[in-house]
Structure formats: structure tokens, C-alpha cells
């Protein structure tokens, strides 16, 4: 097994890093502000430009952005506020007496009877956003609602509303922010049960993917669409009858399966298809009976099934997630996580790596130059970093968010140590914190930056690159 991985590693240059146990030095910490206790949804941009959280004021809630309180609302959407990927914008769903609105950069938008807070998405550059909202009385149970008083859903793109649908899925923006897609459901009245006055449970719902305002073919169900890296292609899973297939650029492709991604009784979830960085290749996982397949370029290969993570919410509804499929930057390598008999391992182009108790949920990552591959895995009671086929043991109780620098020569990750968290970059351990609030980001000079909470104070922390520490 190790020889197989050595063959893969021979195509890359071994990345030499200091010991992964880490030592604490070489960081700059800039205080951003004090955070009151018992705040909700604390979030921040990695560069520390913006931070935000929800604060209770009597029976009201206010969102605090960069220390300044906004307008008081009756309620703020679960998991909000959100900060755009580039750190330039802050948005949150809020409820007042007239209904729900999306507040973006302090300005409230249109008011709706309901708003799907989790559906808010930003373009990578933050210039475009979209979310789903509805009009209609949602207090009535579905079984008591007639066709005529059903909920009317729209996707809001900036200040523009889409056509009205009976249901919608989470919107998706292309990487360049120029294209928008989402799943849309439409009820089809069954004339055998009273025509247009039939109750909702007596009619069928069909689904189509709407791309740039144009609905595609109707199916019994569809998955969340995915754009290619260049934004020119779109793919999604669709159910026809009891079988699933893949739709690419509006055309059905490949074989029929019992599930594309995952289908678990009384659970929702999927493993979305993945395009290669050059947008030429497409891969996804599918299941027929108990047999799983990795389908790349339309060709299925039987594989061991992926580890399936199930999370139950307060109502007992299960959400299922699978580790993502990952292409190398040149599209020649395809990695996935497999699991069987209590073990999990990473497979690259059909070659299996060593078995572990668990592989971190983010799965493997390739360096931007394609020369390295790394992932976090659990071995015994602690976690290790697997880098280019070489295992580097740590003493941490958890590892996550493995990240390469743009030049591929530096590695960083978040480590758990009891109830505290630290960031390790090039073997250099940052200060212990109560929580890492933002994601990690490499700067152009290979310094790692992030925002963390320690003793109710927020800090912007930078791990200085080796050349800066040597001065």
C-alpha cells in the first residue's frame, strides 16, 4: 500500500516541513475589539476587515458589525450574519412585524412573508448575492393548504426577483459571479382529485433547474446545480421515475443509478458533481444497490463507498454529507475518500493510501501548483497530517482546514487541543484561542492570517513567513 502511494508521490516534489507538533513563535496579534458574552453567530473575515455577531437587547436582536450596532429586529436568521468570501460585505436575514427582509451592508431589501436564511450566497468577489424567499401564509400546515393558497417562492438576485415558483432550492452563482442557477419546483394539479382546487398532498411536484432565468427539463427531483470553474458549463443530478442520472449542459449523460450522491431514508443530502479546474472533466459518486461507483468522464468504476456523516437537527431531520471529490489543478488526478469496516482512506486515481480511523471531513487537498497532496487523518486517539505519502504525527485531538500557500511550499491547518484551538503553519504553532472565528488565508508573502477569539477579545493574527521571522 505504501509503495503504491510512493508511486503517486514520485510525480510530486516532497514538501519539507518542520515537525508538526509545532512551536509557538513568529506571530503578530492585533486586537479588534471586546466581544460580550453569550453573543450568537460570531463571524469575521480572515483579514480582520469586518467582524459581526448577534446581540440580544431585551426581546429584540441587533447585529453588531465592527463594533457598531444596527437596527433592532424581532429576530435574526439562524446562522446569520454572513460575510462575503472577499470580506467586503455583511448581510443577514431579519424579521420585523411586516415580515422578513435581507439586510445587506446596513440596507434592508424587500419584505417577504418568509425568507430562507441558509440560502444566501455571495459571488467570490462579493459583488453579487442571491437568496430564496416566499410570499404566502406558512402558518397553515401543508395538508390543509389548497393549490390556490400555496406558498409562492422567488429567488432574489440583488434587487431583482425571479419568476414565481411553488418551491426553490438553494441558488448557486458561478465563480465569476456572472451566472445564476437554482432548482425550482412546480405543482402539477391532478385532475382526478379536483383539479386546481386539490390539496397539496393530492398533487405532484416536478422540478427543473433554472439557469440564467431559463428553466430546463422537468424531473421528479433534481440536485443542486454546479457550475464549472470557467462558468460556461453546468451539471446536476436528476431523478426520472425511481432512478437518478446526471444532466450536463442540459443533456442527460451516463447510466441510471439508484442514487447519485447519497439517498438515506428520512434524510436529505447529496454529494454534488465536481468539475476539474480546467472545466473539461466531470466526476461524481453514484450507487446501484449496495455498490458504489466513481463516475469520471462518464465512465463508472466500482469503488468502496464513502464515509457518510449524518447530523440530526432538533426535529429529528437528518442531513447527510459526503467528503468531496477533488481534482488536481491540472485535472489529471482525482481523489476521493473511501470507507469500510470502521476504517477510512484516501484514493488517488484508483490507488489507495493507508487506512485510518477517520479522514477529516474536508478530505484531501492539492497544492495550487499540483505538486503536493495533504489531508488530516485520525490515528489512535490523535490526528496526523498525511503529506505526499509521508505521515507526520501530531499530539492534537482534532485537525481541520488543511490549506496550502499559493506557491505550494507552505502548509497550515487548525488543530484542537482540549477545548482550545490553535493554527499551525509550517510547524509553527500560533497562540491558543477559545475559537478560530474565520477561515485561514495565505497572503502574497506566504504569511497566514485569520481571526480568533480569546478571553472575550477578538484578534487578527498573522503567522509571519520564515524570511520575515529571520530578520
Please, could you describe this protein's structure?
The protein has 471 residues and is mostly beta strands. The chain has a domain at 1-34 and 333-471. The protein is 3% helix and 51% strand. The protein has two helices and 50 strands. The strands form eleven sheets. It has a five-stranded mixed beta sheet, with no helix packed on it. Strands 2, 47, 48, 49 and 50 form a five-stranded antiparallel beta sheet that branches. A hairpin with a 2-residue loop joins strand 49 (448-454) and strand 50 (457-463). The protein is globular, with a radius of gyration of 24 Å. The protein starts with a helix and ends with a helix. Mean pLDDT is 86; it is low at 6-24, 191-202 and 264-268.
Q: Which features would summarize this protein structure in a list?
A:
471 residues; mainly beta; 5-stranded mixed β-sheet; 5-stranded antiparallel β-sheet; 51% strand; globular
Distinct helical segment count: 2
Shape: globular
> What's the main sheet like?
5 strands, mixed
Radius of gyration: 24 Å
Question: Strands, helices and their partners?
Answer:
Blueprint: H1 2-9, E1 23-24, E2 27-34, E3 40-44, E4 51-57, E5 60-65, E6 68-73, E7 75-76, E8 82-83, E9 90-96, E10 99-104, E11 107-112, E12 114-122, E13 129-135, E14 152-157, E15 160-161, E16 167-168, E17 172-173, E18 180-188, E19 204-211, E20 214-215, E21 221-222, E22 226-227, E23 234-240, E24 243-248, E25 251-257, E26 259-260, E27 267-269, E28 274-275, E29 282-288, E30 291-296, E31 299-303, E32 309-312, E33 318-321, E34 326-327, E35 334-340, E36 343-348, E37 351-352, E38 358-359, E39 365-366, E40 373-379, E41 382-387, E42 390-393, E43 398-404, E44 411-417, E45 420-425, E46 428-429, E47 435-436, E48 441-442, E49 448-454, E50 457-463, H2 466-469
Parallel strand pairs: 1-46, 27-33
Antiparallel strand pairs: 2-50, 3-4, 4-5, 5-6, 7-9, 8-9, 9-10, 10-11, 12-13, 13-14, 14-15, 16-18, 17-18, 18-19, 19-20, 21-23, 22-23, 23-24, 24-25, 26-29, 28-29, 29-30, 30-31, 32-33, 34-35, 35-36, 36-37, 38-40, 39-40, 40-41, 41-42, 43-44, 44-45, 45-46, 47-49, 48-49, 49-50
Amino acid at each position: 500500500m505504501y509503495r503504491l502511494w510512493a508511486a503517486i508521490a514520485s510525480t510530486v516534489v516532497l514538501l519539507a516541513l518542520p515537525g508538526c507538533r509545532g512551536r509557538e513563535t513568529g506571530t503578530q496579534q492585533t486586537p479588534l475589539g471586546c466581544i460580550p458574552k453569550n453573543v450568537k453567530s460570531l463571524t469575521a473575515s480572515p483579514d480582520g476587515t469586518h467582524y459581526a455577531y448577534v446581540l440580544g437587547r431585551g426581546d429584540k436582536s441587533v447585529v453588531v458589525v465592527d463594533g457598531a450596532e444596527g437596527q433592532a429586529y424581532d429576530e435574526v436568521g439562524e446562522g446569520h450574519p454572513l460575510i462575503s468570501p472577499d470580506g467586503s460585505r455583511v448581510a443577514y436575514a431579519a424579521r420585523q412585524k411586516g415580515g422578513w427582509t435581507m439586510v445587506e451592508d446596513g440596507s434592508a431589501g424587500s419584505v417577504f412573508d418568509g425568507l430562507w436564511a441558509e440560502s444566501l450566497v455571495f459571488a467570490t468577489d462579493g459583488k453579487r448575492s442571491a437568496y430564496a424567499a416566499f410570499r404566502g401564509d406558512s402558518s397553515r400546515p401543508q395538508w390543509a393548504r389548497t393549490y390556490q393558497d400555496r406558498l409562492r417562492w422567488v429567488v432574489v438576485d440583488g434587487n431583482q426577483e425571479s419568476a414565481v415558483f411553488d418551491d426553490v432550492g438553494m441558488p448557486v452563482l458561478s465563480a465569476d459571479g456572472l451566472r445564476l442557477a437554482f432548482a425550482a419546483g412546480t405543482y402539477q394539479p391532478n385532475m382526478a382529485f379536483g383539479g386546481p382546487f386539490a390539496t397539496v398532498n393530492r398533487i405532484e411536484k416536478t422540478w427543473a433547474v433554472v439557469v440564467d432565468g431559463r428553466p430546463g427539463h422537468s424531473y421528479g427531483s433534481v440536485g443542486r446545480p454546479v457550475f464549472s470553474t470557467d462558468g460556461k458549463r453546468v451539471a446536476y443530478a436528476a431523478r426520472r421515475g425511481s432512478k437518478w442520472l446526471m444532466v450536463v449542459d442540459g443533456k442527460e449523460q451516463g447510466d441510471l443509478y439508484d442514487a447519485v450522491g447519497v439517498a438515506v431514508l428520512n434524510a436529505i443530502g447529496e454529494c454534488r458533481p465536481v468539475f476539474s479546474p480546467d472545466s473539461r472533466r466531470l466526476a461524481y459518486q453514484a450507487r446501484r444497490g449496495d455498490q458504489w461507483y466513481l463516475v469520471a468522464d462518464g465512465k463508472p468504476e466500482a469503488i468502496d463507498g464513502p464515509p457518510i456523516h449524518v447530523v440530526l437537527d432538533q426535529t429529528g431531520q437528518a442531513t447527510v454529507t459526503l467528503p468531496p471529490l477533488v481534482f488536481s489543478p491540472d485535472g489529471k488526478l482525482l481523489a476521493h475518500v473511501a470507507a469500510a469496516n470502521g476504517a477510512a482512506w484516501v484514493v488517488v486515481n484508483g490507488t489507495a493510501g493507508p487506512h485510518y480511523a477517520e479522514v477529516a471531513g474536508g478530505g484531501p487537498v492539492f497544492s495550487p501548483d499540483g505538486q503536493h497532496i495533504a489531508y488530516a487523518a485520525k490515528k489512535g486517539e490523535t490526528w496526523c497530517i498525511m503529506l505526499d505519502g509521508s505521515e507526520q504525527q501530531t499530539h492534537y485531538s482534532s485537525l481541520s482546514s488543511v490549506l496550502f500557500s499559493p506557491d505550494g511550499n507552505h502548509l497550515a491547518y487548525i488543530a484542537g487541543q482540549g477545548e482550545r484551538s490553535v493554527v499551525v503553519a509550517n510547524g509553527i504553532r500560533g497562540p491558543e484561542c477559545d475559537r478560530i472565528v474565520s477561515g485561514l488565508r495565505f497572503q502574497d508573502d506566504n504569511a497566514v492570517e485569520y481571526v480568533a477569539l480569546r478571553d472575550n477579545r477578538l484578534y487578527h493574527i498573522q503567522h509571519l513567513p520564515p524570511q520575515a521571522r529571520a530578520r
